[in-house]
UniProtKB/TrEMBL annotation, chain A:
The keyword Kinase does not apply. This is Electron transfer flavoprotein alpha subunit apoprotein. GO terms for biological process: fatty acid beta-oxidation using acyl-CoA dehydrogenase. FAD binds at residues 223, 248-249, 262-266, 279-286, 300. Belongs to the ETF alpha-subunit/FixB family. The keyword Electron transport applies. It comes from Pelosinus propionicus DSM 13327. Its cofactor is FAD. GO terms for molecular function: electron transfer activity; flavin adenine dinucleotide binding. Binds 1 FAD per dimer. Keywords: Electron transport, FAD, Flavoprotein, Transport.
Automatic annotation (TrEMBL), chain B:
Residues 22-212 form the Electron transfer flavoprotein alpha/beta-subunit N-terminal domain. SMART domains: ETF. CDD domains: ETF_beta. Pfam families: ETF. GO terms for molecular function: electron transfer activity. It comes from the Bacteria. It comes from Pelosinus propionicus DSM 13327. InterPro entries: ETF_a/b_N (IPR014730), ETF_b (IPR012255), ETF_beta_N (IPR033948), Rossmann-like_a/b/a_fold (IPR014729). This is Electron transfer flavoprotein small subunit.
Length: 336, 266
């Protein structure tokens, strides 16, 4: 393998019901930095069904080219179909770098593709740079529950692949007057080669979408809530802020709220603009999942709670006194 | 059904502290534990065995001390434990590790199901499970919250933003599980004593004659760690502690408005 044969930065665009998920747009912005550093093109890879709108979106968010692969078998994400497409595309076009959002689907696809291509994959990155001497990507990621950062290189094999944490990079302002070459590739995967079949979907009881990975504001509750009914005040604060409800492991383990809400190593890794932790002490596993949030607000009675170590605003006080006042005041401000 | 579970011995990351002077990890005295998500995988395997019969084999790659982790697995329901250990395996990244594990699994026999935790709490990559599936040439099901098996068919619930996808596949498959799948059981004194006496089989590189030595260890690993560092410590934020909760809340709101974080439409 000669690294020189491999060029351009690809971003795998994850879609849900035909809509582009945020993380792909975030990665287009950072992918642009990597592509420019090596004088290469930024190319969006979109797989699914009926992708015209998705192709327009990724063009507006900065892709130089869009490779589109459509097929009935790609309507929903599935490991075998999507891996087949990605591997066939890589073999044909030889990209140097592939960025994939570190969602559940991205973390399912990344290892399967990199293993089939016998190349390196760096998981859940929070930093991406180009090493000036070699032109390789320097992938930086947290390990040991966020206690240690590691910078990883994949110098001798191509493509260099990484999954990248959601919310770490910001998407750019879209420009819908931009144009990009749309390349349609006909790659089909026979149904017998797709070995997993989605046969149903169970909506969590009483839940609306818990899209923590894409949330701009998250209000999370922890052990300090004391009992399940008290989640009502967290939900109310989330409602006035148009935020998503999160939870610590303690609250989930106690059965107060569904595991789909869990933030941290056991649950989801999040990077919202504002993260409000109510009654959460801040165990390292929780911090590992939310410390890349832009602004962290902590409300806790215990002034020594570790959560205050990462908080931009630390309110030492009883959440049952503080949160209702926040709800009332924010309502007033919003009503104005 | 015959089930194989992959486990990793990891440092208890909750016990890791940073030396405030040198700003490096203090590893001394940090206990080694079985990766928590792997315990969920083992519990899922033992429950399936209890329902359908068969066997549960546990494997781990690591140094000799990883036998302690394997003995713990024997004490909570595994029938057999095998350590995959050789100096030649040291320094392997996830691709090389999964290749070694898959080669060892093929040597150990045919399994209907391979179970792993969704990720290990030290590396947090979540890559080895899917990569084992690829090396074995079988399907993968990741982030699984429920498993049911009926004959050759496996039906799972896979974690999703809005709930759970229900997915069906034909065995054999590799499944990686999340914590909410079950509550792992505890060992009792009798099972602990029996596990302590158990002899753990060890597979070395020499026991895997078909293994390609260029694909293992540091040299066989496409990714290399260039440097590690402790994350820069965040500057301490603004503390708000007024006489009452109400006063604190009002003060916080005032600060948000000043910082232009809160205005109409937020």
């Amino acid at each position: 393998m000669d690294s020189k044969d491999y060029k351009n930065v690809w971003v795998f665009i994850e879609t849900a019901h035909g809509e582009v998920r945020n993380v792909g747009l975030e990665l287009l912005n950072q992918g642009r930095v990597l592509a420019d550093a090596n004088y290469e093109k930024l190319i969006a890879i979109v797989i699914g069904k009926q992708l015209d709108a998705a192709a327009k979106t990724v063009t507006a968010y900065g892709a130089d080219e869009v490779i589109v692969v459509e097929g009935e078998e790609y309507t929903d994400y599935n490991t075998d179909g999507y891996t087949n497409v990605m591997v066939r595309l890589v073999e044909k076009y030889k990209p140097s770098v592939i960025l994939i959002g570190a969602t559940n689907n991205g973390r399912d696809l990344g290892p399967r593709v990199s293993c089939r291509l016998a190349t390196g994959l760096t998981a859940d990155c929070t930093g991406l740079e180009i090493n000036e001497e070699t032109g390789d990507v320097a992938w930086t990621r947290p390990a040991f529950g966020g206690n240690l950062m590691a910078t990883i290189l994949c110098s001798a094999s191509r493509p260099q692949i990484g999954t990248v944490r959601t919310g770490v990079f910001k998407k750019t302002q879209p420009d819908f007057s931009r144009t990009a070459a749309i390349i349609r590739e006909e790659i089909r995967t026979p149904s017998e080669e797709i070995r997993t079949k989605i046969i149903g979907f169970i909506k969590a009881a009483g839940e609306t979408a818990v899209n923590l990975e894409e949330a701009e504001i998250i209000v999370s509750g922890g052990r300090g809530l004391g009992k399940p009914e008290n989640f009502a005040c967290i939900k109310e604060l989330a409602e006035v802020l148009e935020a998503t409800v999160g939870a610590s492991r303690a609250a989930v383990d106690a059965g107060w709220i569904s595991p789909l809400h869990q933030v941290g190593q056991t649950g989801k890794t999040v990077g919202p603009k504002i993260y409000i932790a109510c009654g959460i002490s801040g165990a390292i596993q929780h911090l590992a999942g939310m410390s890349s949030s832009d602004i962290i607000v902590a409300i806790n009675k215990d002034s020594d709670a570790p959560i205050f170590g990462v908080a931009d605003y630390g309110i030492v006080g009883d959440l049952f006194e503080v949160v209702p006042v926040l709800i009332e005041e924010i309502r007033k401000i919003k009503a104005n | 059904m015959d089930i194989l579970v992959c486990v990793k011995q990891v440092p208890d990351t909750a016990e890791i502290k940073i030396d405030p002077v040198t700003n490096t990890l203090i590893r001394a005295g940090v206990p080694s534990i079985v990766n928590p998500f792997d315990k969920n995988a083992l519990e899922a395997a033992v429950q399936l065995k209890e329902a359908h019969g068969g066997s549960v084999t546990v494997i781990s790659m690591g140094p000799d001390q990883a036998k302690a982790a394997l003995k713990e697995c024997l004490s909570v329901g595994a029938d057999k434990a095998v350590l995959i250990s050789d100096r030649l395996f040291g320094g392997s990244d996830t691709l090389a590790t999964s290749y070694i594990l898959a080669t060892a699994i093929k040597k150990l026999g045919k399994f209907d199901l391979v179970l792993c935790g969704k990720q290990a709490i030290d590396g947090d990559t979540g890559q080895v499970g899917p990569e084992i599936a690829e090396h074995l040439g079988i399907a993968q099901l990741t982030f699984i919250a429920k498993i049911e098996v009926s004959g050759e068919k496996i039906t799972v619930q896979r974690e999703h933003d809005e709930g759970y996808e229900v997915i069906e596949a034909k065995l054999p498959v590799v499944c990686t599980v999340i914590k909410s799948i079950n509550e792992p059981r505890y060992a009792n004194i009798k099972s602990k004593m029996a596990a302590n006496k158990a002899v753990i089989e060890v597979i070395t590189a020499a026991d895997l004659p078909e293994i390609d030595l260029t694909k293992i260890g540091l040299k066989g690993s496409p990714t290399k760690v260039k440097k590690t560092f402790t994350p820069p410590r965040k500057e301490s934020g603004i503390r708000i502690q007024e006489g009452t909760g109400r006063e604190s809340a009002l003060k916080f709101i005032e600060k948000l408005v000043v910082a232009k974080l809160l205005n109409r439409g937020c």
